[in-house]
Amino acid sequence: MGRGDNIMATGLARDAAARGKRIAFGDGRRITWDQHSKEIFRGNPNIAPPGSESNPDLEWIDYRTGHRIYNRLDRARRRWIWNMDFRPVPGELFFNEHELAWAAGVGSGFVLMEPNVEAFKTWASNKRWAADRYDAVATRLAADGAEIVQFAHGDHRIRCARQVRAPSFRHAMAALARASLYVGPEGGMHHGAAAVGVPGVVLFGGFIPPDVTGYAGHINLTGGAKACGSLRTCAHCRAAMDRISVEEVVSAARQHLKGRGMKERFEFIGNVPEKVRSLVRPELVDWIEREDFPVFGVKTPLGEVDFCRRPWPPRADMVTTIGSEHDVDEDRLIAWEQTL
Length: 340
Ligand SMILES: [Zn+2]
Known about the structure:
Layout: H1 3-12, E1 22-25, H2 37-41, E2 58-61, E3 71-74, E4 79-82, H3 97-104, E5 111-113, H4 131-143, E6 148-151, E7 162-164, H5 169-176, E8 181-185, H6 188-195, E9 200-203, H7 210-213, E10 218-221, H8 235-243, H9 246-259, E11 265-268, H10 274-277, H11 282-290, E12 295-300, E13 303-309, E14 319-322, H12 330-338
Helix pairs in contact: 1-6, 3-5, 4-9
The structure holds zinc ion.
């Protein structure tokens, strides 16, 4: 199975520990993990590892390689048959302090874009939206003031994106958790975005139905196609992807960024700029100018606003956070958020 399948498993296991249980993934006799399970399940108290089959706290779910629950293979026609009754629950990832510290250095409030689809799958082309359209979306959102970030892997690099090389998939997910929005294909990254609570614009196309692997917090674009599940390169999927326009993706992205209150980052050297002054109380402005913290974030009921002095991105040890109660004039902040 893929990383996305394992993230879906963490959704199936949600809240088990709260019931005093752990979920055993397997056929009822043997716990079956695949090559990604250990990485995705690390630190997860809801899931029992292989070797714990005889423990009394297990609840079995027969979800494993060859038995994904949300689909089954039609061998003769080389396609997936989707289980239209399946609805995914957002998964969970439990990060350690090193992963979180690294992620803090990536920044926050950016739009994470992923144009690449892992090419080893025979159906990869059915999930791929054109690279030049990702470029066009990135350019438009950057013009709106969004920072575009891409994890540096795969063939296509978005020109205006800051390239970030993540030490592992888990590190990438910890950084994704700090994004305002994910834009990219259905797959490990979109399951990850749901797991870390980040909204998404997900390019589904005609391969897989959003009913089966899509999340309520995401805008899922199909190009109007009925999903075929074809494991071969498919003209119907190509046409579905081609029908999803740059305009449609940009406006879906803007809907998220506007509706949720886009995280904003202020960079400055020396005195606090006027826009920051208008957001926070005078005592806080004094504090910013007096203290030597290069970066700090203010958590608000509507999200997080980052103020930063150079350099950007900050090192993890430069980041400090102050609470919302005493530092932010919330009425003014809310008024400002509403203008976005
Ligand atoms: Zn198709």
